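Continuing the batch. This is chain 6 of the set; chains 1 through 5 are on the previous pages. Same settings as before, nothing changed between runs. Recording input and output for traceability.
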Amino acid sequence: MKLRSLTLISVVLLSLGVAVRAADIRPPNVIFFLIDDWGWTDAACFGSKLYETPNIDRLAAEGMKFTNGYAACTVCSPTRAAVMTGKYPARLHLTDWIAGHNRPYAKLKIPAWTMQLPLEETTMAEALKSRGYTTGLFGKWHLGNEPFFPEKQGFDVNVGGCHMGSPGAYFPPYRIPTIQDEQPGEFLSDRLTREAVSFIEANRSRPFYIYFPHYAVHQPIAGKPDVIKKYERKLASGSYTQTNAIYAALVESVDDSVGAVMKKLAELKLDQNTVIILTGDNGGLSGTLNAQGWRQGPTRNDPLRLGKGSAYEGGVRVPLVVKWPGVTKPGSVNATPVISVDYFPTILEMVNAGPAARVDGESIVPLLKGGTKLKRDAIYWHYPHYHPGSATPYSAVREGDWKLIHFFEDDHVELYNLKDDLSEKTDLAKSNAAQADRLRAKLNAWRTEVGAQLPTQNPQYDPAKAWDGDRSAEKAKKKKKE
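Output for chain 6:
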């Protein structure tokens, strides 16, 4: 095994005359937390002055914090598919949250994209299950209806995973079909954590993989009354960029969950052989835009521009922490860009399962071992859709410090140097036309290689009604049937 801690154990045993076979060394457990709508500064260790996240901060202190962590999409379902498969959403043709927004009179017509994770794809759970892991999901799935539920995609246990993108409520009744026996007054984050802790206890003697995609901190924003009051008092006593006490309480529920899982691992003496990855599925919801104007969301992503559903950094940059005992240097920080498609090949290498086949991501194991570079030179996004977070159909590429965004409605590009301009205030596309042209050609080549679906001109385009539309394509289909 490549785990230094396990290698050390082997050396000690060999020095005592005990023969050690690779098969006798238990591979590491893996716990993957995916927090919904979690903004880049939605934790104290990532800059928040309001939100209190002592357990997440401790995880970062015990592992590696990545300052350039990215989601594969500005909305949730595509990122989840990328995490599960190691493939870019553009390659999967799963490019919007399921079922997406319907804008029938917008300038562009969106492509006929895929609204489920195909069963033909090999998921992280299937890959690990085939290598002897017990697999469990606790939380949000949002990758298709019942024929495509987690149980069909490699998970032995599923608590909470279904077609839903958000809970009916955070207090019972949750109105989530895959959660039964609800306890009166129990908060949803706590319920999912209780189930995950029970899973750890039941599978302590064998390797396990936990995919823990919290419904938090997605709307409907809710929190425990006493925690909300704590943040109301805190807000009253000072000045903060983030100002929503209820959202702060919801963030704290996630931190409580991380703490409870870490505590159970330590109690069972599994903490030194368990990898923990913690990240988000898209940027924090900073607000929404419609024909009436801008509506402020529950969090802010300053200094990043905008948030969930936008083409800018606030829409895709997310917190990322990895703890790999015996490998990651405690308290280390890495600035290399890492994106959702990287986790599949990374985890396979961590458990010594060999390289992943047919993936777009690259293993970040070299970074976790102290390196500062990967083989690739760029990462990509493709979102041929509309979103009230402000996005119109676009693609983007980041290469080094440079980021180029191609907007399809009028075919213009914007170019930013993120090292000098993290807030993306100064568009350099005209003043550095050669760089913009080069990156645009690179982005075009990538779209061709992955078979990205493109929007087309909409024959029903009506500027006066461009904002009109049902909340989702799913509702539109339902109305058509009726």
